[in-house]
Amino acid sequence: MNKYLERLDKLNKDSDKITVYESIDRPIRKLVYHINRIGLRTRFSCCGYSYDGEEEPKSHYKGAYIQFYLPKQNNLKMFMLFTGLACNNGWQVYRQNWKYWAIRKRIQLPDDYYKYYEPDAIDYAIHDYEGLILSIQGLEKNLSKLRTKNKTFRIVDGNKEMQKVTNGEWQVKPKKDKVFTNTDLPWISVVTISLKR
Q: CA–CA separation, 42 vs 69, rounded Å?
């Protein structure tokens, strides 16, 4: 079996037993949680670097990203707050198409910044992740302060939609949905932010 199929089999193994939340990159997991908690629905995410214990080896680097669906009319205020916080934390916010938006944070260093000091000239320097994790956690901390009226919310694997769109030919099997209540995770500290002017 070729390496691609081996990786695919490993990724799809037990996909019906684990939740999408467990399969989200650990460094960006809490941020994805908060985006869904405030009423926006995420589609895909990546922390942008390899880390110990990751589920899926990365085939794309140089930046973290989160794709999310166009918000419903009643979530436009949260969308504006979220995208404003993302921009203020150095993330790029852009519309991908008529249905999806995304935020992205690129590694800010030139590609050869550490190469001069790396005797083994590895593709990605040990320090490349540092700016990404600080940006992820900075935005996460700001989002954790937003209070919502949502009592429960669901995180859905974007691979589920892609399975439908491609008539089952999408190769990554979706994980199970994860339903949360706003009191499920103990690390949340919430304050009230007024949306009125």
A: 6
Q: Identify the CA nearest to 7 among candidates 45, 59, 53.
A: 59
Alpha carbon 181 to chain centroid, angstroms: 19
Those residues with Cβ within 8 angstroms of residue 140's Cβ, 6 or more apart along the chain or in another chain: 30, 31, 34
* 80: CATH: 3.30.1960
pLDDT digits (tens, 9 = 90+) for 24-37: 999 999 999 999 99
Q: Are 175 and 22 in contact (CB under 8 A)?
A: yes
Cβ contacts of residue 75 below 8 Å, gap of 6+? 38, 39, 40
Which range marks the domain in which residue 7 is found? 3-181
Q: What is the DSSP string of 144-197?
A: TT---S-SEEEE--HHHHHHHHTTT--SSPPPBPEEEETTS-TT----------
pLDDT tens per residue, range 82-130: 999 999 999 999 999 888 999 999 887 665 665 545 555 566 667 778 8
Q: Say if 67 falls within a structural domain.
A: yes
